[in-house]
Amino acid sequence: MAEGRLSRCRADLAIAGFLAFITVIANASGSSYVLFPELGALGWVIFSDARHPWARSPVLLMLTPFLAALQGLWITRHLAYGPVAVLLDVGLSLLLIAALRSPIVPALSAGLLPLALDIRTWTYPFAILIGTGGLALVSLWRARRARDGVPQPADAPPPVLWSLRGPTQPLPLLRDWLWPFGLFLLGGLLLVRLIGSPLVLFPPLLVIAFEMLVRRQHCPWRGRYGGMVLATNAAAVVGLVLVKLLGVVPVAVFLAVLVTLALLRLLRLSFPPALGLALLPFVIPQPPLSYPLFTLAGSLWLLLVVALHEALAGPDAGGGDADGHAGAEGSSDGATGTA
Q1: Average model confidence (pLDDT) for the chain?
Q2: Is residue 321 a part of any domain in this protein?
Q3: Quick check: 320 pLDDT over 50?
Q4: The whole model's pTM is what?
Q5: Does residue 328 form part of some domain?
Q6: HEC secondary structure over the chain
Q7: Which domain covers residue 189, as residue numbers?
Q8: 319 part of a folded domain
């Protein structure tokens, strides 16, 4: 048990250090989008669980967010933020994930971020590649250690290194998830209109919604919805406070990651998207003090849709995938994400 805690501590320090280094690159290059918020969730899983599909797909780890970012940027440059732009953006990102059979669902966030923050520079997709490329190198390094005979978990599957096909099954049947996911998007857009900020439908919320509505049989925080809302909004507060106090500097990012991870450990909650909530204020120009309230509104709306879906379809209905992903119980040290 002590060895497991030491391993978790090392993984937490590694991802916090990695993101602090990415912040150095972002500041030096003048492109804040190098610090892509979903690097937090991706990094936590990759540094913690070599068995996870994210860690086994380094090519898709780079390719899927990059392509989603390209199409999201193109839509932002040609359409104003609104239902048509958001639904087209999310629909194309889902098609991309399905076509590649990619496990990298945080690509949904990469696609929506340009619309949410009105990003119009063509450097954005290439900025994302810096962080995802770094994480892909970590995956390759761990795979090389496995090939060189360094002890690995006995049930660790081989990495899908250079394949353009992910280690997962296709998306579940549309009839199992299209209506609740569509309802979530339409209601979220209505809230955006009523409240007046696209941050109500904050990009990491799409990843959370995908887990809870599409892959809900394998959602690692399934049934821990109160903890999810608490972690979501506490992470948003942590990130906002550190940005306001210290600015977009490596030490602030380092602390935001460690504090968020400590909160998740305290809650005994496997919820990687919380790191995206903590990092998002670092890429929002002049993040508003109301940012945590926007995230709360979006999170509560998602919970209402999840409750309605479970009431109508039953808690055990819906599709999963055969490969699935480990939840808090199935992961080697409690970190997990999306299958």
Answers
A1: 86
A2: no
A3: no
A4: 0.86
A5: no
A6: CHHHHHHHHHHHHHHHHHHHHHHHHHHHHCCHHHCCCCHHHHHHHHHHCCCCCCCCCHHHHHHHHHHHHHHHHHHHHHCCCCHHHHHHHHHHHHHHHHHHCCCCCCHHHHHHHHHHHCCCCCHHHHHHHHHHHHHHHHHHHHHHHHHCCCCCCCCCCCCCCCCCCCCCCCCCCHHHHHHHHHHHHHHHHHHHHHHCCHHHHCHHHHHHHHHHHHCHHHCCCCCCHHHHHHHHHHHHHHHHHHHHHHCCCHHHHHHHHHHHHHHHHHHCCCCCHHHHHHHHHHCCCCCCCCHHHHHHHHHHHHHHHHHHHHHHHCCCCCCCCCCCCCCCCCCCCCCCCCC
A7: 2-313
A8: no
Listed ranges 50-54, 158-162, 163-167, 201-205; the one with the highest mean pLDDT: 201-205
| Confidence bin at 49 (pLDDT 50/70/90) | confident
Structure tokens, 180: 């609740």
For 25-51, b where at least 16 C-beta lie within 10 A, e where not — what string?
bbbeeebbbbbbbbbbbbbbbbbbbbb
Residue 31 forms part of a structural domain:
yes
Cα separation, 107 vs 276, whole angstroms: 12
Contact 73, 125 (CB under 8 A): yes
12-to-15, 156, 230, 254, 309 alpha-carbon distances in Å = 5, 21, 20, 10, 35
Among 14, 127, 124, which residue's Cα sits nearest to residue 70?
124
Number of domains into which the chain is organized: 1
Measured between alpha carbons, how far is residue 144 from residues 55, 138, 273 in Å? Answer: 13, 10, 28
